[in-house]
Every structure is written in structure tokens, then in C-alpha cells.
Amino acid sequence: MTSHHHLFGPPELDRLFRPVLGQPARGLALAVSGGSDSTGLMVLVADWLALTRQDPGAVFVLTVDHGLRPEAASEVRWVEQEAVRLNFRHAVLPWRGPKPKTGLQAAARAARYALLAEFMREAGLSCLVTAHTADDQAETLLMRLARGSGVDGLAAMAPLTALAAPSCRAPADILLARPLLCVTKARLKAMLEARGMGWLEDESNQAPVFERSRLRAAEETLRRLGLTPDSLGLAAERLQRARAALEWAVAQFCRQEGCYRVDPCGLIRIDAGAWAALPADLRVRVLAKAIAAVGGEERAPARAKLEALGQTLSDTLATPTGLGRWTLARCAIRATRSQIALEREPGRRPWPELNLQPGGRALWDGRFWVTAGPKLGFAVAVRALGAAGVQSLRGEVALPKGVPAGTLRALPGFYRGSELFAVPNLAFSTADASATAVSAIFAPLANPEASPAAQPPLP
Predict the structure, then answer these.
(1) Residue 396 belongs to what domain range?
(2) N or C: which end of the chain has fewer CB within 10 A?
(3) What is the Cα–Cα distance from 157 to 47, expressed in whole angstroms?
(4) Phi first, then psi: what are they for 124, rounded to 5°?
(5) Burial (CB count <10 Å: 0-12, 13-18, 19+), residue 97
(6) Which residues contact 411 (CB under 8 A, 6 or more apart)?
(7) Same domain? 67 vs 202
(8) Full-prediction pTM beyond 0.70?
(9) Is residue 458 part of a domain?
(10) SS3 sequence of 252-295
(11) Residue 375: inside a domain, yes or no?
(12) At residue 452, does pLDDT exceed 50?
């Protein structure tokens, strides 16, 4: 059980920070708003850097100015003064533009992480450190319990994960570290008070309109029931281990010969018999993995929709014909007695168009990592081949057998103006493209262990 004594000695500092920040720590940024949690994080990281003889001047403290309260500007200045006093670098990230009238907290969180990710990528930073505490972990678990979440949701927050920033479709190369998940807010406040340090209080955090505020108001009742941050944190830690075991089982299934086949053209085929023999939860997870890759959506479908699809698919495969077709999250799913095939559904939205400069790399349509070689002498547009594009290639290249027409139409083509000059997945290129590194790689093949957009776990 976590002690609430305010002292953090060298062994504990090292135990908190070395596993998630590394030794030596590189490319770090601390997300600091000025509250007791993030101020405590800033102080403790400074202590650990001094303990391990590392330069705090290589670490950024990042503060997002949401522009929602008149006092925000003075609060940002206070954080900057404290950061500079601890020899950190500091940057302010303003959230500009109109603010929504509803769902403000969710919108602010999305904007915050997008701004942080954008700054870190431009600065070449690789690890964002936040001050989520044992109290935050407990609240997250309880909120997800109230929604009927499964193992993934109840596992709450992991100490180290890929940063999935909404509206940020760049490579998932930034880690999100939460080293204080076993430390309570009360202990951080006691540590700051013992040092004679203050912090900022945001009264809006206590507004009963917010779910977390209502949980905090019920804190004493929860404690009397034994639902303390320590006990809930232990439950979340054990559920994280259970989630890891389930993910391992899915990975083992996908590695078995013939069970889960990923086609470079963006098609996934699953052996129907092998899938049907899995336990129900693993069937849902395999479907979720395939749908995330093929559909390329930023957000995973709701767990209830995945479970409903899994049950319908199981029932269909048990019929004499085993035939069926469904759509979910931009993905078309077709079943036969022998296989489940998933391909990108055209849907009602127009196909995306992406402009690439020479040397550029980006995730197109949430599915393909596309690259324009640095020696390419012109910018290119990447857009779906469509029916016209596929038709223009007939006679030019041998189209792959067994790949549905819809999958071919959904492939990325490289265009110079209106001219199609390269389709890497079909080994087609004109003279302009043959000497350059133009490529398009289906995301699961670029990183077989992750979904293309660093999807959050199932709720």
C-alpha cells in the first residue's frame, strides 16, 4: 500500500521514473498546468534528474493555454517562472479558435493532446510525461465501471503507452508516460507543502456538472466501502495484466499459418473455422484488430457493436450456407463457410486526398503509410484509384488474382496533376517514378504489433 509520507527518497524516485523515462532520459516533455499534481511531477522529475546527474535544460515543460478563463494568462506565467526556477525549458501552447458550447471538457482534452503532440513532433521529442495519479486511476476505473466496460476499459490507464492524439494522424512515435499512477494527490500536496511551495487551484474542476467532480465529492463514502485509490489501483494493475494476456492470445492466433492473412493491397482474410473455435472475447478482439486496420478509423467501434457483429457472424457461420455481408467503421465484412474477408468500404464520404512533398511521409486514409522519395522533383497527390484508375491499369499491369475489385479501387495512387504515375501496391510506375522511392505500405505490415492509428483499447 502506498505511504502518504511526503518524502520521496532516491530509491523511490528511481523506481518511479527510471522504468518509464529511461536512463539516460531523452526527448522528454512534461505536461504541466500548475495544479498540485503536475507541479509535484515537475519537482520530482527535477529531483530525479539531479539524482541521476542529468541536465534539466534538455527537458521541456509544456503548458496549454485553453483560453477559457480570464486568469489563464497569469497562471501560465506562474508555471513558466516555476519551470525556469527548476532549470527546465518552457513553452506555452495556446488553443485558438472557437470553443464548443457542449462537450467542452472532451474538446479541451482533444485539443490539448493534439497541441502537445504537434509541438513534440516539431521539436523532435519522444516522451510526454503527465501527472496522472492514483486518484485519477481510481476515478477512471469507477467511471468505466459505471458504463459497463470490459477488461480493457477497467484496466484504466497504463504507465506507458503510445500517444494517441485525436486529429493527429502522424506516426505513433511519441510515448505517453504516467509515472505517478501509484502516488496519491494527498501525498504530492504534502510534499509541496513541506517544501514551502504552492500550486494553482482551478475551481471549475469541482463543478458538479463533471463526472470526475461528482466522484471526488463521494470520496469519503467510497473510502468507507473500501474503494480507495490503493485498492482500485491494484485492481486496475491486475486487469492490465489480464488485458496483456488477451492481447498475447490474439497475437498468437494471428501468427498461426493461414489463420489471419494480411494482403499488401489492404485486405484481411480470417480462417472462419479457426475464428469460430476461439472463445467469444478473443473472437471480438480479432475482429476489432482487423476492422481497425482495414477501416482506418481514428476511433475503434463501440464494444457493444463489435460484440453484436461477432455474435451475428458466429450465428451466420453456423448456418448451412455460412454467407453474410455487413459493414462497420468503414469496413465491409463478407463471410463464407471457409473465410471472413474484410476490405475498405467506400462509404458515403469522399476519398481523402493527400499532398506529399519530396521526402514526405504520411498516413493516407488511416490505412497506408505513403512516402515520396527525397529525389522526386515535384509534389504528388495521393488519392484512391477508384473505378477509373483501376480500369486505366488493365493491360498495363497484371492485377492480383483473388483481390476484390473494391479493394483495388481503394488503393492509393500517386498522381502528378491528373496523371497517374505510380501505384506501388500493384508494381506500376511510369518513367518519372521508376527512379524514385515512392511507396505505399499497408499499416499492419509496417508495424504488425500495432493498429495504424495507435487505437485506444476497447472500452
Answers:
(1) 354-446
(2) N
(3) 25
(4) 75, 30
(5) exposed
(6) 265, 266, 384, 385, 423, 425, 426, 440
(7) yes
(8) yes
(9) no
(10) HHHHCCCCEEEECCCEEEEEHHHHHCCCHHHHHHHHHHHHHHHH
(11) yes
(12) no
Report the relative pairing of strands 89-94 and 60-65 from DSSP bridges: parallel
Place of cell 501468427: 255
Domain with 154 in it: what CATH number?
A: 3.40.50.620
CA–CA separation, 328 vs 337, rounded Å? Answer: 20
DSSP per-residue letters across 122-154 = HHT--EEE----HHHHHHHHHHHHHTT--HHHH
> Strands across the sheet with 354-356, in order?
354-356, 380-384, 412-416, 419-423, 428-429
- Per residue in 215-259, pLDDT (tens digit) is 877 888 888 988 899 999 999 999 999 999 999 999 999 999 999
Residues 175 and 235 in one domain: yes
Cell 516533455 belongs to which residue? 29
Residues 6+ apart with CB under 8 A from 335: 272, 313, 316, 317, 322, 323, 324, 325, 341
Q: Are residues 278 and 385 in the same domain?
A: no
> Residues 250-268: pLDDT tens digits?
999 999 999 999 999 999 9
Q: What letter would DSSP give residue 183?
A: S
Q: Of 344, 379, 397, which closes a domain?
A: 344
- Shared-domain flag, residues 148 and 285: no
Reported residue count of the chain is: 459
Residues 161 and 184 in one domain: yes
226 and 290 both lie in a single domain: no
- Helix axis angle, 229-255 to 134-146, nearest 10°: 70
Cis bond upstream, residue 94 (ω within 30): no
- Domain tally, the chain: 3
pLDDT of residue 453: 38
Cβ contacts of residue 129 below 8 Å, gap of 6+? 20, 21, 28, 29, 30, 31, 41, 45, 177, 178, 179
Element (H, E) at 428: strand 428-429
Query: Taking Cα atoms as reference points, which of 105, 98, 76 lies closest to residue 207?
Result: 105
> What is the structure's pLDDT at 1?
39
- 97 plus 188 within the same structural domain: yes
Helices (H), 335-376: none
CA dist 188 to 184, 199, 227, Å? 7, 11, 20
Tell me if 435 is assigned to some domain: yes
